[in-house]
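Ticket reopened. Same input as before:
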Amino acid sequence: MALKLFHQVGHNASWNIDSFEKEQCGDGLILSPVHQSPGSIDKMREATLRASIFDPQFYLPSSQKPKLLQYDFFPEVITEGFSTSSFEASVKDAAKRCLEFQRSMKFRRLVVPTRFLDQMYSNYVDRQRAFTVDAFMDQIGSEEEVCISLAVTSSMLEDEGFRTKLLSWITSYSNVAELYMIYSAPRERKQIHNKDLLVACHRLGQEMQGIGLELTWGHQNTEALLATAQGDVAVSMGSFENTRIFSTDKFVASDDERRGPKARIYLPGLLNWLQFDQAKEIRSRLPKLWKSVYWETLHAEEALGLVLEPTFNQPQLYKHYFLCMSKEVGGLKSSAVPDRIAYLKQRVAAAQSAYAEIGRTIQLEKHGQGTHLDYWRAALEVF
Amino acid sequence: MPSDSARLRADLQACFPSLVIDSVAKESGQRVVYFAHFDDSLIPTDIRADPADSSDSPDLPFLHGWQGWGKVVVKVVADVGTTMLTRLQAEANLLAELQSAQFPRLLYSNYLTENPITEDPLAESLYVSVEEYVDSVPLSNRLNDYVGKPAEVCSLAASIVSGLRPLWEHKRKLVHRDVKPDNLLLTPSGAVVIIDFGIIRETGVQGVTEGGWGRAPGSVDYAAPEHIANDKDLVSFKSDFFSIGVLMYRLISGNHPFRTRVGMDSMEMALATEKVVPPTLFELGFSNDIQSSLVEKMMNKKPYLRPRTPEILLAQLETARGK
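Engineering reply: fixed in the latest deploy. New output:
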């Protein structure tokens, strides 16, 4: 195993695909039926498919999202109107079709879907088993290694008893070789402000390393960098916020509703995304500091050269992020965990120092501020 | 509690006239176990029972040819309740299905509510199974032979793991749940035969006993915490890993990791299994760090932190024994 970085594919999947194929960013993709039709996946290069997994996204089985409805195994489709009882009768068929699709595309590993349950139900495991897991496992040979997808709440990760229950259940399948883990966390800001969650993720990553279970974190924002301190796990990067912050809203609301009105750019030296116009203000008013927080890429230079602010339909700022993350993670691959932690501590300290300097000149809007770094620093202290 | 008695023997011999009981193998637990053999010359001449009752050869009448089985193990439960009957039938079905060299061969099993010869109702129902006799010694008789021999114990554990793999890899994901020295037989060739599948369970499936801490069936000395807690979501092949880990610790150190004083009752043992972290074998000077760490990992209270697959465990046992 090695530290890996995957694209969390979202709207405009071609940006992720281009970034992976043409700029060698990342180690593969996590494909997304809510954003990609079966036909578009079928047209992808075989080498790219073989480096990727397909997340069936049964998290909200009654979703009406048009692209999801193009998959004949999606619960809402196969039942012609999802209900738990109707799906019970169809789940074997859904599993068969879903696995056939995944096999036909030659993805690097089969993914067993689960649904998103937002409460720590006492029968959580039973519900997941009855929903999909038993039916999928029945159709997969015990020798065939699979990945299981699990979207949980931050509370579930932080609760040691529940986490033990979940992980013990997952590892009771000896052919589960990979866990694709997504968390949803209540937040008022785009970055995570919860040390306990960061530490719980860290512990989980370490434990998975200890037992040799591959762990792929999905829907990560820049905290993916912190996750590199877990060891040789796979972290993720996405373009729009709904690929960097998990919520079942994206299976309900339209993508248009979820997009921020203002463009943002990732500044590695601040470990955060800043509003584009505020970034340009830093560039003009604090040019020396700008050089320390900005990593030049062709895409970012192109965006900074535009007369008008880039919109969400333009890829430059997202491809810039992919390049930065690829450089960040690539640079850590050969480092041992203690060195990664030491490096991240330095980066956080430098970012906080830069933020302090910016604060003396420019008032950043709340999501662009560095308040999340206090939580990162506290978490790093206990990693 | 079933026990050997003149009445039980009389009932048995009325149902199986050619049965010759040689000795009582075991009387404790949930059934009486006899060593026995069959003598065809004792079969009444008028027997022409339903040939379907014979699991050995449907072409021969009931009891005929059973002498050829030689020495056998006869397990009997009288007045069988539905819970016990379910378990016994599960064990019989499994042995018949798996046909592993590391499990005893099942020769016959039946639930009798009437005498199969006279068809008269029995005063007490009987569940009777006949298994091949395995020339062996139970590991419980050899516990102290392994003290300070971690490499040998790793080999033994690897053999137990290999023996149990057909259960764990069965399509129903079975778990033995009662791996302990009494249920492990050592043959003269050094092979391990695993017996007593009475409380075997399908992973994640509701069992026949009521849930709740301390209400799980089986003995507690080698049981995993999740088995003691009767938590069906957590009981898996990892629970058997825990039992094998406890067994390894006991064999290598000469001391049970959780039975730290004489006279501990089952509730105290259950609590100790759940809470106590014993000193490592390395700390005690009984093994090297690799062997000690593996046993420690197998005995982790959290199932997911034990070795992830049987294959990985076997590889780690190989490494630990120095091969």
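The first strand of chain A starts at residue 4 and ends at 8. The interface with chain B takes residues 125-126, 129, 138, 142, 164-165, 167-175, 207, 210-213 of chain A (CB under 8 Å). Please confirm and we'll close it.
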